[in-house]
Amino acid sequence: MSSLPNNLKKISLFLERLPGIGEKTANRLAFYFLRLPDEDLKDFAESISSLKTKTKFCKNCFNLTENNLCSICEDGKRDRSVITVVETVLDLLSFETGNIYNGIYHVLHGKIDPLNHVGPDDIRIKELLERIKELTGSPIRQAQGKRVNGLKEIILATNPDMEGEVTAMYIKEKIQNLKSPYRVNKIKITRLAYGLPIGANLEYADYMTLKKAIEGRNKF
What we know:
Blueprint lengths: L5 H11 L6 H13 L2 H12 L1 H4 L1 E2 L6 E2 L5 H4 L4 E8 L2 H8 L6 E5 L17 H11 L4 E2 L5 E2 L4 E4 L5 H15 L11 E4 L15 H9 L5
Parallel strand pairs: 3-4, 3-7, 7-8
Antiparallel strand pairs: 1-2, 5-6
Helix pairs in contact: 1-2
Pfam families: RecR_C, RecR_HhH, RecR_ZnF, Toprim_4
Family: Belongs to the RecR family.
GO molecular function: DNA binding; zinc ion binding
């Protein structure tokens, strides 16, 4: 890399700091940028330079957006009686792939992780509880003209690791401890099902995966 011009070398070194990018890939990407038309490179540079200033949190769900509300919260066709709680925006994007879910979200931006000094106050749990207070018992009108009695279900979709489990349990307890007039007993709190992925081989499944698969088995 020492034979590269300084500006190209700086770009390559920066790219090498990105997740999953090694030295050779960084060099290839730097040369790719060099071959881009000036207009495309200028647009890319402007997008990078304005990334931090234009991107902000949705005031409702803390998804990333350039406006006060993200496109999901602005969508009148979404079912606002169901909130799925996820750890990151990338988790939200996974749900949005394939149109498998039509509710709304709450992004925590992390999970409770005492070993890394991340507690409940460091993620967006307080804001979730405030949303629940606002929605509980408040009739809302769906796009189809139906009226529902506020919030019906909260899906805890934190990751199935130790920290994700702790986060889900903490949130569940906090919701259940909300005092009157918040009718939390009317809200169904659910957790994503665990089990074997499609195409998996039982021979290679670990104990906990099999245990969860047995516990969550469905009628066939």
